[in-house]
Every structure is written in structure tokens, then in C-alpha cells.
Amino acid sequence: MSAFFEAHRTLLDQAVVATRTRGYWSAYPETASGKIYGETAKADGEAAFQAMLGKPFDIDQLGDKRVGREVSPYGITLGITYPALSVDRLLALSGAAGEAWGRASVEDRVGVCLEIIHCINRQSFLMANAVMHTTGQGFMMAFQAAGPNAQDRALEAVAYAYDEMKRVPGSANWSKPQGKSDPLVLDKVWRIVPRGVSLVIGCATFPTWNAYPAIFASLATGNTVLVKPHPGVILPLALTVRIAREAIKEAGFDPNVIMLAPDDAEAPITKELVTDPRVAIVDFTGSPVFGRWVREHAATELVFTEEAGINPIVIDSTSDFRGLCGNIAFSLTLYSGQMCTAPQNIFVPAGGIATDQGHKTFDEVAVGIGAAVDKLLSDPDRAMALLGAVQSEATLKRIEAARKLGSVVRDSAPVPVVGFAQARTASPLIVAVDAGDETAWGEERFGPIAFVIRMPSTTDAIALAAESASRKGAITAALYSTGEVVIDAAADAFAKAGVALSVNLTGGVYVNQSAAFSDFHVTGANPAGNACLTDTAYVANRFRVATVRRQRPPQA
Amino acid sequence: MSAFFEAHRTLLDQAVVATRTRGYWSAYPETASGKIYGETAKADGEAAFQAMLGKPFDIDQLGDKRVGREVSPYGITLGITYPALSVDRLLALSGAAGEAWGRASVEDRVGVCLEIIHCINRQSFLMANAVMHTTGQGFMMAFQAAGPNAQDRALEAVAYAYDEMKRVPGSANWSKPQGKSDPLVLDKVWRIVPRGVSLVIGCATFPTWNAYPAIFASLATGNTVLVKPHPGVILPLALTVRIAREAIKEAGFDPNVIMLAPDDAEAPITKELVTDPRVAIVDFTGSPVFGRWVREHAATELVFTEEAGINPIVIDSTSDFRGLCGNIAFSLTLYSGQMCTAPQNIFVPAGGIATDQGHKTFDEVAVGIGAAVDKLLSDPDRAMALLGAVQSEATLKRIEAARKLGSVVRDSAPVPVVGFAQARTASPLIVAVDAGDETAWGEERFGPIAFVIRMPSTTDAIALAAESASRKGAITAALYSTGEVVIDAAADAFAKAGVALSVNLTGGVYVNQSAAFSDFHVTGANPAGNACLTDTAYVANRFRVATVRRQRPPQA
To answer: Which residue of A has its CA nearest to B102?
Structure first.
């Protein structure tokens, strides 16, 4: 049994238990503290990042050419280039590396995976800089979400994969009674057989958090992995692959068990990879348009997607109006609404709602949320940290277009970032519309864009919110209500629509947060994605079981 | 908790353990004994079957018209008609029945499933007659394979589904420490959400054994089921649905939770069902041609298929030549080779093999197997019982065509069946060909058709057998060898090709037999099918998990 497995076994056992009990549990501390990560870790991480700029990325991987034109949403040009290979060579090298990896024991592979995650954890500050300057996330969010939180998601996938593989016994003696005759006896042996080459297509906003479950579920189950980053957000996954290759090599395997497959936006290789029959598994995070193309055109049937949706909030009543406004404002502000879990549509009865501050009209609710955003952004440091920068220029164009879709409750504006004069920023836009303005709110408008939607009643609001989730997809939903009957009705409606529901969040937990080992991220039951990250279904089909059954030779 | 669940709970717990230990275990006795099933059970079953002939099938299910033109392969016309509905009405009724079924507790649903299987078991003799006179199976095989063995497969699916659903806790308290501040606390509740309407498409040869895993996996996980039988083999699934509806009704649910969806060969409804977006799950057993169509055209992504393949045997050497010949002969003869697990291609080195009877030439091996078939069929009663009848006229045409594909080692011939002068029968055809005659052996030729293929060496035989399995599909493979190195090489090759391998079967276990709770039937890793019946992946995606997380109100 591998030394890596033994070294991390206690953590693994805890992780497996956590997937079943689903209370709070975390393996990797999200506090960016020198006491945990080393007193010089923050400075070392930033220095290491700075040292990479303008140079070829140092990775032990073959390349026919170099690609990479990353520009930070904070304005600096990264100037880092990465080795690139043809699809044919990538698949050939990955396939060759899979021979020994697929034959390795479950413990050997899982041990290597755990070691990789451990090594990634040690580089969390470097990763934070890499993620900040590719996705635009604020530094602290980049540290937490792309670092320890993503590492927890990786461990969760390994725990599920390990648990599932160990449910298949290695061997059994099968002895079937035959009345007075001797029993029929077979010795049976089972082995885990991987699918083959696994393609993981990363996204531009959460390159590690969204890709790690797929990468580690596939690696643990014996598949080799081609990591195809978004052409504008390569560095975080390049770092991941580099660290992984080192651990894989140290364990005595061909490092091509995992390979970076970068490309340029001008010469994309994703479609060629997806349609190649040598790719056995595809994991995709990205837009619904390309997600649909991937599902329809992939050569393999085994496609896991997280696409996007229109996440609703229904406001019926509250015993903490201030907390409600503050909580929603935070959700709209965090990373400028660029989370797949961020709310877009806030359904409010036209007649207003009952609150601890008395009756509030529809307009007062809308204005209350807008004012809470203003308050949150009134401190420039906090504004900068919370909003981060806007990853894509296209998001600014969407904000511009959304202004015209209704009555602007709170306008979006750039927010200065100290030290980065060229940063691309935008605070939340809040637009009031009617239920019938479905051309406005009925489409995903990625970025800091929210609609407050005037509804005839709470009942209509729940019905329309759930229906829009079933049709267009949604990952999260939130409800504010003091009525148990309303809460029960919403629980039923959103369960049927396949959306995770958060009720009466007014404190320090936000609807956009999804905790590893407790929250099932995406249900796979509406168009926001066809899979959950992570559940059993996410891992169980990444491997198959091969049987050898053997008649026992007659006793001598 | 339901009375049904309590009544069958001990059996369920044993079944769950059996799926994990995978030694011999069975819940339903396969001995067709009056001591087990009641002294009059055999006569009662036959009488009940006879009483059904020429009449409308008695089932509490709506119909706009009646369909059914079943003719027994033994020559009698069944003359039973079944109520049929339009696809639209079937889906509307099934969907409506799903509301309460999907909300029921795991225990309630699983209890009903266990009760259904129990009631089916009590009707095993009636089922044997129904299966014999639709599929052509001999009576004893029809009793065992379509009765208790199929019931075991049903229980296995329920056990997997139950175990998987129970891995999701019903609730948890999530409490995240916040240093010196109060922790963040959420109460979380999870519920199982079914996919919706599940379509199960049955086949003509093993209507119950192949459909039960799908039917019961879908029912247990909260889906409603439309059972679409092969138009020529309706009765066994009609009986199943009738029994199921009675138990479902007794438990207080709408019996339309399961519905028979029969059609005529002249007006088939399968394609309309498969392409309807209201169908959430499709399970298919049948030909690769239609299976491919189903996979490519289904509206849902969730498609489970068992198609077909070309199952190989590789003969390298043996310490029991007589046992080898007898065992293979039995496998070729049983149900006239109409099992999806029956071998088709027997790869033998051109230079012959070493045996306990000295060296045997290629021709001696082929002739030895042919002679063993003759011996097996020399007793007319045994011949009749083993061979059964040929389900489809098309199979006789395939035999006729196959005669011309090589050198006939043993010819096929009709075999008289006492009491059924019009029975459609055929004994095994064995044809010797060269490795290069791939147009002969390289296609599935369903029925009592086998090829003995002349190979340069055992190494080539293993390689070609495994390669043909990867390309054309295979569910089973067998190897005869006294050499551990050869056995290891075959184990590797067939594992990679996704085929279950049986080694040195010379006694009373045959390569075509697949035991519930021990053998994984189909791997899902080659074109013989995209799923395993049953493993975790077969059940885990039939339901999803919905979350409600709720901020705890501040303490009063």
C-alpha cells in the first residue's frame, strides 16, 4: 500500500464519513493566516506569481508550440505562455500513460490524489494570485474559493470515488448448494477498470472550484485527465497540473496521467477533443449554449455538465427586513454577480410584504435592497474586496443592455481599485420589471445584473420562479417567509424543479455559498447542469467492474 | 413506516449485504417444488394459463383499443388481447400517478416493491407457462430464469436503490465555527426527488429477467414506470404489471404508478415514447440496431441499454477435455443459443491444444464439441427441455445463411417436442472458419449458431477475441487454459474489453449463467450495453437530491 495513502488515510476516512453525515466539515483551512500556511506564505505566493509574469510557464510537459494571452481583469498583461500539443498527440500520450495508472491499486491512485491536493493546499497563496489575476476575483475570495474551498471539493470527489470503488469486493467464493450433491463452487475476482481518457473543460470564473471535482473523480477511478482551461484563464489550472504531475511522477507513474491542454481563442481545440472517440468522459463547466453543443456532439455518452441558470429569490415576508436586504445585497455584490449560484431574479408581491418594520411596498423592498448594496460598497476597501473585477468585457455590454429592460432601481458603476487603475469593474445593477417582462428576466444575464419582479402574489411568485428554473435552469433559490405553509409549498416546488432552496438567510450565510461535504452543488435535474458535484452518480460511472470467475480445480 | 416494508425488511437487509459480499445468495428458491410453492402450484399455474387463452387479459387498466397477437413458438395461438392507450394518455396518467408516489417515503416505496416481488414469486408457475409460450424457453428454464432468478434480479435492484437512497441523510445541522464569534448555523433537510416517467422496453427472449432490474430500480427511486413489452411477448410483463398494480393499490397509491404499454408490430409506439420529452428514463433490451437508435434519439440523456454482442471462448489447453466439450456443448444448446450470454465464437489454435487426453488437433476440438452436443441431445426429453423452441422465424433464416459461411462441423436440425407438433426448433449449428473469415464470425448471429475459429496461436486468439468484444460488444467470455500466464493475460485483455471472463468451466456452471447478487451482468464498457444490471451507477442517477437549508431563528 502506498506511502501517500497511509499518510493521508485518516483524512480520507473522515472525509468519507462527512459525505454521509453532511454537517459542517472541512479539511483545508480557509483562513489566510501565516500561522497556518507559514509566516512568509503570503509574500512568497505573491513573489512567485510576479516571477512567472512574462515568461514561459515552467512545466515538465511536451509542446509543439506555446500559447497563452492572459490579461488580468485588473489590467495587467500576464505574458505567460504554455506548451501546447495537437489533439492527436495529447490523446496518444494520455492513453499511453493510462496503461499503468489504470492497473494501479485503488489505494495507490487515491493516495496520489490525496498527495496532490495536499501539495496544492501548500500553494494556496500562489493560487490566490493566479486566480485573482485571471478571473478577477478579489484576493480573499480567490484565496478561499479557489484555494481551500476548491481543495475540499477535490477531497470530496476522492472520498466519493474511494468509497464507491471499495463497495466492490476484491474477491469472493461463490458456493451454490446442490441438495445432496457437492455444491457448485467458483472463485470470483473483481477489478476496477477505468473508462480511459477524461477531458475536463474549465471555465473562466471558477477554474479550480469547478474543475477539481471532475479532475479528482476521474483520476481516482483510474482515468487519465486532459485539463482544457478556458483560453483566458489558464494559469490556475496550469499550476494545478504542474503540482499534480510532480506527485504522480514521485509515485512512479508517467506524469502524462494528467496533462494541460491549453489553446488560444483563435485556434480552439475543445470541439476536436469532445468529438474524438478516444475521449471516454467529458466534464464541462461553461455557458448553456456551448454546454448543449457538448452534450449533443460528444463522441462519448458520459458527459457531465454544469451550465447556468436564472437563480430566483422569492420574498413573501420577513421578521428581519434589514437582515434580508443586507443578505441579498451581499449575494448580488460578491464577485460582481459572476457566481453560478448568484441570484438574478427577485420575485416580490406587487402588494408588498409584511416585515418586522411594518408593511413594505414593492418599491420599498426594491429600494431597500439597493440601499443595502450602496451601504456595503460605501467603504472603498470593502467594495474592492467584495466586488473584485469583471472577468469578461462582454459582461459590461450585458449591463449596458440590461439598463434598458425596466426601471433602474440601482445603477451599476465602475468602482476604483487601489493599485490597478485599469481594472474592469462594475457594481450591481438592479432593475424593476413586471412578471410579464420575461424577455428581460427570463434569460440568464451573467454578471452584476438583478431584476426585482412584480408578482400578483407569493403563490404566483413561487410557481413562476420554480417553473422558470425547470425551463431555464437554476442552481440556487432563496425564500423569505415567516409562514410555514409558504415555506412548505416552496420546498415542494423547488424540489420538483431540482433547485436547492435556502430559507430566511439574514445572517452570515449567503445563497451563493455551497459547502463541500454538505451542500449538493447542482442537482442535475434542470437545465443548469446534468450532474451534481458531487454525489454517487458523479463517480460511479467513471469506472466499470471486470469479473474473472474460475472453477476451482478438483481437490487432489 | 409501511407494513410491507416491515414485513420484508429482514430480506432487504440480507440482500443489501449480499450486493457487497457477492458470494452465493438467493431470496427466491429456483426449485420448482410443491413443497416450496404448494402441492397444487404446478397444476394451478398451468390451469390459470390455459384459462387465459383466447380472452381479453384481465387487468384493471384503461384502454382505447385492444392489441395482442402472440403465437407460442411451440405452435399454439394465445389469442389474448391487452388494453392499449395512446402515448399521450399513457404519459398523462403516468405523470399524474407520480405526484404521490414521488413524495412517498423511501420505506413506503421500497416496501411496495418488495411486496410486488413477493406476490410475483407466488405466481412463478403461471409465469413459467406464460414465458414458455411466448419466448420458447423450455418449461424448467422458464420457471427458473423468468421466475425466481428474475425475482432475485428485481430484489437486487431494490437493494441497490434502497442502499443508495439511504446514503443521503434526511437532515443535518450545519454549524460552521467563526473563531470567537457565534458559529454560522443552518438546518438542512434533504429529500429524494425522482426523475419522472420511466420507460422500460422489454425483449422477446427474457422479458422478465431483463426488465425487472429497470422496473424495480425506477419504482423504488420514485419514478412511475411504463412497461413496453415486445409485441410478440406481452403476457409475462402483463402478468407482472397486473400483480404490481394490485400491490400498489393495496398500499394506497394510484395503480398507474406502473402501466402496461403494449402495441402491435404493425403500429409500434416505442419510437413515439422514446422521443417524448416527458419520458425521463429509458431502459432498453434488444437489438444493437434499435438500441443505437434509442441511444441517439431519446429525448432524455438517461438511457440504459443492453444490446448484444459476440461472446467469445478461447481454448488454449485443458486438464479435462471431456468436461470442456460437455460444458461448451451445454452452453450452445441451452435455449437454442438465444441467450445474450451464449457463446458464439470459439477461438482454437490451428496447431491444436494440449489436453488430459493428449494433443488434440483443431478438428478434434471442433468435432469433440459437436459430439458432445449430439450426446446431450441423444435423450429426447433432455433435448426438448434444454433447447426449448426458437422464438423468432428470423433465427431459422440466420441458421440457413450461416451454414454457407464455412465448413459445417455439426449441422442444425429440428428437434421434435412431445405434444407440440408445430414447435419451431433448431439444434446448434457449428461451423469451422478461419480467423480471416470475419464476415462470418465478426457479426452477431443470434440463435444456435457457433463458429470454431482457426487461430495462429492462443496469444492471437485472446487478442482477437478481446478486440472483437471491444468493437462489436460481448457480455461473456470463457477461457480454457492450464497455464497461469495465459489466464493472467486473458484476464487483462478481457477486463480492458469490458467482458466478464469465466475460466476452465467444465462442471455444472456455464458461461451463460449470471447470478444475481454476485455476477455483474454486462459491464457497460463495450457495445453490448451501456449499463450494468445491477450496480450503483444503474440506480444512482434515477433520482436526485433536493436540499432545503434554513437559517435557525435567533434564540428567544
So the answer is: A496
